[in-house]
Amino acid sequence: MTFSLDFRVHSEVGRVRQNNQDAAYASPHMLLVADGMGGAAAGDLASAVAAKEAHSSDRRLGDEHLLEHMAGVMQRANDRLADLVQWNPEFDGMGTTFCGAAFSGSMLGVAHIGDSRGYLLRDGELKQLTHDHSWVQALIDEGRLTPEQAASHPHRSLILKVLNGADGTDPDFFELDAREGDVLLFCSDGLSGLVDEEELHRLMAGDDLDKAVKQLAARANQLGGYDNISLVLARVVPQSDELDGRDGVLAGSALERRIPTVTVADDEGYPEPPVAEDETEHGVEENARYAPSDTKRRWAPPLAVVLAALLLIGGAVWGVRIYSSSRYFIAEFDGHVAIYNGLPGALLGRELNHLVERRGTLVEDLPVYYQRLVANTIGSDSLEGARHTADTLDDYARRCAAVRRERALSPSPSLPSPPPGTDPLPTVSAPPPDATATAQTPGQQNYPTVLAAVTPTAAEEADPEAC
């Protein structure tokens, strides 16, 4: 059975950013969102390249050619980014996510790299189709973070894979059978990073696509609008010549950013979109896997490619390590309260923190509330601030130990008043009550970051059970 797509496209700056580095494209045959990054290094240019390449390559294909087609679109966009960087080194550092699908009328061929997302609402159930290529997602996969902790992690925007002109991008490709009534959402993290799945589900479930798009964007803005907000929303409907005849629609940076015309000395032209008669030469899966490497590279010497990759990786690691060296956090070490320098977790297999100081305070002596905070880590901008917080924890532990001793002797102990001059812990948002601590073993640890510590309420402070 053949279907059509009823689609809508939206892209806006949001409430905080100065320009729109997102781009989007939708047509009867393709849906795409691209989130550029690089700031002054032209993230808006990178996303515009991806969206315009999708537009220029767009056409109706059969089921068996969808993945090969999307692989070719991504590779040609990546090649063009490489040419732009070679032409103007100031563009070095730009990149873009790519999240979308080609539609044959009965099947979707999905292509994804980065942390933009694809969702499917089918039979009343919302499912995230794509898997983020981000640092916090890697920590979730390794069991070091919960999804709730990742949502507020200070480094949730660190992406591990994007289109940036380099080799070895390794996108995700998969196929999906279309069903009548399916609702598809492709969006940048300016939407998915603020609006949770429950609200996405509720807003996508309505019959009016125009209203749904407005409500989705409005909700992201209500929750802060910290990033550009771009989305493509489409419903699978019975085949319609009118819908199949609609023109493709570009949005965001694809309308605002001009792509420079680049001439490379050894240029033989960008590869053309694959044509049907050539697409039967190899299996779809094989073409999808290897099509990106078929195009020629502008960096001729293989050694240059290796060196460039090493420099990029080294630069990223160096930048994170420099930033992490200025950060401190309190966590557990061998059952004691301890101060660490750096960031919880690891990057590319290298720990981002080291132990600075182990206190004499046992975590088990703390009130239960603060035991949870230490298990999830308490962040600080300086060693002095971390020590001040640790001193306050020491006071709480001593008081709580006294309460427990008193409780052992009396059925109704009362909690001693705080020592004179004791300052409360810094006030930030608290972790959820059911947050669980990461399993720990002696030695260097990796802790999920919840920079959370609040002063207990009066009721908690007066309740001996808080200890």
UniProtKB/TrEMBL annotation:
Keyword list (alphabetical) reads: Membrane, Transmembrane, Transmembrane helix
Q: Where is the composition biased (Low complexity)?
A: 435-448
The protein's matches in InterPro entries, at most eight in alphabetical order, are given as: PPM-type-like_dom_sf, PPM-type_phosphatase-like_dom
Looking at the UniProt entry, the stretches that span the membrane are 299-320
Q: Which Gene3D superfamilies match?
A: PPM-type phosphatase domain (3.60.40.10)
Where does the record place Pro residues bias? 413-434
> Where are the stretches annotated Disordered?
265-292, 406-448
Residue ranges constituting the PPM-type phosphatase domain according to the UniProt record:
6-236
Renumbered to this chain, the Acidic residues biased-composition regions fall at: 265-280
**Top-level taxon:** Bacteria
Q: Which Pfam families match?
A: PP2C_2
Instruction: Name it.
Output: Serine/threonine-protein phosphatase
